Structure of ATP-dependent zinc metalloprotease FtsH:
Amino acid sequence: MNNVKNLALWVIIALLLVALFNLFQSPQSQGPSRQVAYSDFLNAVQEGRVTDVTIQGDTIRGHFNDGSGVEFRTIAPPNDNGMVERLREGNVRINVAPVEDNVPSLFGILISWFPMLLLIGVWIFFMRQMQGGGGKAMGFGKSKARLLTEKAGRVTFEDVAGIDEAKDELHEIVEFLKAPQKFQRLGGRIPKGVLLVGPPGTGKTLLARAIAGEANVPFFSISGSDFVEMFVGVGASRVRDMFEQGKKNAPCLIFIDEIDAVGRHRGAGLGGGNDEREQTLNQLLVEMDGFEANEGVIIIAATNRPDVLDPALLRPGRFDRQVVVPNPDVSGREKILSVHMRKVPIGPDVNARVIARATPGFSGADLANLVNEAALLAARRNKRVVGMAEFEDAKDKVMMGAERRSIAMSEDEKRLTAYHEGGHAIVAMHCPASDPIHKATIIPRGRALGMVMRLPERDRLSVSREKLEADLAVAMGGRLAEEIIFGHDKVTSGASSDIQMATKLAKNMVTQWGMSDKLGPLNYGEGDNEPFLGYAVTQSRGISEATANVIDQEVRRIVETAYDRARTILTENHDQLERVAQALLEYETLSGDELKAIAAGEQIKPRRSDDMGDGGSATVSEPRPPRASVPTAGGDDGLRPSPQPGA
């Protein structure tokens, strides 16, 4: 319907433009003519060169007898009474035309009033737009909250797995909306707001969609970035309009995704002057729990940065509950995998439990991506079902990056990479607290030339000093293997990520985890260990220069201790390093069990080069971001920092 109206408007505008063009072109429609002086006209009459004239008031038009056919035009003086006699003496044919009245036509009136009518029309258009809904061009102050009513693609709690505690908290709200008497008879009241907190990809938005699918009440959805725009007062107006819509449809649910975009600390703005975001937040605070009662409207918000939210927004009465949505454990991962595996044909050899145990630290979004990658690999290999081999290859691709076999490495570079990765593997095998090796490869993956992937045997919530020191020693193993085999002057920059990770890990041990004997259990950190929680606008270091020097000394001591430990292990097990490096040069990729057998001097079964997975024509070119519970080691190979104690 709107398209038809727009088309009709453009047709009318086009017709008006054509009419205006014709109007301004009308003087030229009477043919060519030239203006002559009145004296020249009289001379031409006297000489007999004028054939005919048309007198219309004081205007005289006529033609000369020169055969050109061009009309001339002149103006006669008002008191020349003898002009007609002179024309008759010159044998000129005389025509008289009536003088036109100066009364304007209807079209002329429209043309003269056209600018004013155009301004009035534009004013009416803007007024109607401002009075219309949020979808109108001028509906700045209208809320952009969308009412979810579609039945297609409906999500329920059955589609949410692995976060049972969060489901129970939100399921209670749905029950309250369906049967409020059950809770009100005991004096309970419905929570006014629920804040979903957790790292990215854990299912916060999916939970909100499940609530929309379960609750038989109106469900409004809006993003935190939809409030504030370039016009002053728009944010507060949209908040008011959103709650007005909610009150009209009460009881109802309003979901605000990424609320940190509008709910940041007040007074932390860097721009100065009037802060539109603060006005929006103030209006949100008033609407959630202000002077007027706001019964029947429940706010559900999601964020992965709770530390930047204003304290007034988090207090009971506004957000009564804060539901933490963490990464799933092994049981949760198995349930999530089962949900996503319903959508793809699975082979009989696929075991979701095995895949769940091999993917610690994966979020729900990571697991969904894993299943999708496995399905793409199976399709690329022209298989009818997705087998365990595809899941293994997809897991390696997601965790270590895509294989890049097209990179042309020289024999010297390949040999150096093999000893570098062999150094990581040997140190890891001789450190009891280290995680078991999952796979080692010298095939470039992502941005790394080689990799040693370690996986914990179980989900880890805290990390001991022994485990952290083992991770430091493993990180130093690659550089030390280069130095022992090729000499001090032949070490390369391949250990850059190892050194970076070791430095960061040692600094965290000193400044945040209280593992320095000199400094004791004191915290000198700046809270930058949780990348998904954000940073404060201003942070002061709060330590003296002398303390900073001690911190640097302790960090150096911890790293050097790990360096010496790795040197001792590689020196005492030089023969194992040689065997592992030669096996990597021959097979390129080895599993953890094969590495143990080779280090012990055993022979492994001959196998095809693609037994460890070919990676296909993968498209992922960057290493995975750090996972708190999946520390790995390798030379410039996406080495991930170890988890924090108590995380």
